[in-house]
Amino acid sequence: MKKIYLILLSSIVLVSSCQKTISDFDPSTSQGTGTPTGSGSFVATIDGKQFTFTITAATLLRSQAANEKRLDVTGTSTDGTQRIIITLGEETYQGNAVTVKSYVLNAFPEDDPATPTIDESLTTQGFTTYGTASGSNWIYGIYDEKGSFTVSSCDASTTLISGTFSTTLTDLNDSTHIVTITAGKLTNVKYTILN
After folding, report:
1. What does the pLDDT read at residue 110?
2. Which domain holds residue 20?
3. 55 and 15: one domain?
């Protein structure tokens, strides 16, 4: 009983000491400092208006245990009003790059009841996170997505990625709110390998 009490007490102390600020969870900052971490260029047209983005984070995260890797590139528009995070995933942890190919962007693929043995989530190879500025905070919606990202180059030795993308985001809470992103382009974006 004494052991259980100590474990419970340790858990409470650990949880109470792990409070985070919003910058600790913001992928656009490096260790919560707000310092831009990426290089290269990032442009996209959102609802007909072209934006240039400052790359604030670009990381490749690998998990041997799950046998997968994920590349995230975060950009904030130079006017500070828009934020796009592109996430691409692969079912292998090996290598310091992602495969040159076209990736399906769709966080919530529709489940086909006619194919109960097929896991439609396996068709998802990436997704887009889109946010807008509200004062000093960011508002991120939850969107159904239909899009693609084509990686034209990804070099494991230089850790540079280039590619193009377009997508349509439909707000899951308000289907009349649609965000259209076209002419998206990343050129020689430098990413960091986290593990």
Report:
1. 59
2. 1-25
3. no
Residue 195: what pLDDT?
83
* 31 found inside a domain: no
Dist CA 164 CA 43 (whole Å): 10
> Residues in the chain with pLDDT < 50?
1-36, 119-121, 123
Amino acid at 158: T
Six-digit token pair at 103? 């990736």
> Which one, of 87, 52, 44, lies nearest residue 183 by Cα?
44
